[in-house]
């Protein structure tokens, strides 16, 4: 589904990504791990088009997308749940979900029933403002909004950050269920090692903008990965 090859990304003179390559396959969760400031979010923003890369290639289903605008990538099926959620606090839950209509043809601009099967609490709060929800509920809303776009590639940037354990468990169940349906590739960015390890089919670890470890879950050396997560 996704092939990223030799990405270099700079902020001014500072290099944030150094020849980073990764893949994500449909029906799998690919986990990107690393401590704060090593380039995880920069990589995700590059994939969705919010940062321009200096060199390298990004391909979605073998079609190059690195020159496309973010909106055009969204129309191709790329969706992100950003770090910090970025829901609209003054819009209702329903209105937040409807912002996911933007990349869809008019005849597909509906909120699928499965959204409320995955996140029942949202169905009970459609008229409440997004800013009135708890942090965990806002995270569920952010994921649901991304799913409204019917993505083929779903990127989740640290979905457990600041979330209570019961909601983390629910989010993990949703991610596993989406993976098992088989039609979507999922990229999960995390620092919470246990959560990532339990979901990962494949993983890569970033440090100072470079990939320092990668492989399948069976190849994951827990102690080595944790070493790259410790501040």
Characterise the protein shown here.
The protein has 231 residues and is of the alpha/beta class. The chain has a single domain (2-229), classed as Rossmann fold (3-Layer(aba) Sandwich). It contains nine helices and ten strands. It has helices at residues 40-48, 70-75, 93-98, 113-118, 120-123, 135-148, 165-181, 193-199, 222-229; strands at 2-11, 14-24, 29-33, 55-60, 63-64, 78-81, 153-157, 185-190, 202-207, 210-216. The strands form two sheets. The chain has a six-stranded mixed sheet, sandwiched between helices. Strands 2-1-4-5 form a four-stranded antiparallel sheet, with helices on one face. It starts with a strand and ends with a helix. The relative contact order is 0.21.
Can you summarize this structure?
The protein has helices spanning 40-48, 70-75, 93-98, 113-118, 120-123, 135-148, 165-181, 193-199, 222-229; strands spanning 2-11, 14-24, 29-33, 55-60, 63-64, 78-81, 153-157, 185-190, 202-207, 210-216. It has 231 residues and is of the alpha/beta class.
């Amino acid at each position: 589904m996704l092939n990223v090859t030799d990405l270099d990304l700079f902020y001014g003179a500072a290099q944030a990504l150094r020849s980073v390559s990764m893949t994500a396959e449909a029906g799998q969760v690919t986990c990107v791990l690393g401590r704060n400031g090593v380039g995880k979010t920069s990589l995700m923003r590059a994939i969705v088009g919010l940062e321009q890369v200096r060199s390298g290639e990004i391909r979605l289903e073998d079609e190059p997308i690195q020159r496309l605008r973010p909106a055009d990538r969204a129309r191709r099926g790329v969706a992100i749940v950003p770090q910090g959620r970025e829901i609209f606090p003054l819009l209702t839950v329903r209105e937040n979900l409807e912002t996911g209509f933007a990349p869809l043809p008019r005849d597909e601009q509906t909120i699928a029933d499965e959204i409320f099967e995955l996140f029942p609490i949202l169905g009970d709060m459609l008229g409440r403002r997004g800013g009135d929800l708890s942090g965990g509920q806002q995270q569920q809303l952010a994921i649901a909004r991304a799913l409204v776009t019917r993505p083929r590639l779903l990127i989740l940037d640290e979905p457990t950050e600041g979330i209570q354990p019961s909601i983390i468990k629910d989010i993990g169940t949703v991610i596993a269920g989406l993976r098992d349906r088989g039609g979507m590739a999922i990229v999960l960015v995390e620092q919470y090692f246990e959560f990532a390890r339990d979901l990962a089919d494949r993983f890569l670890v970033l440090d100072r903008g470079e990939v320092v470890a990668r492989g399948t879950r069976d190849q994951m050396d827990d102690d080595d990965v944790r070493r790259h997560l410790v501040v």
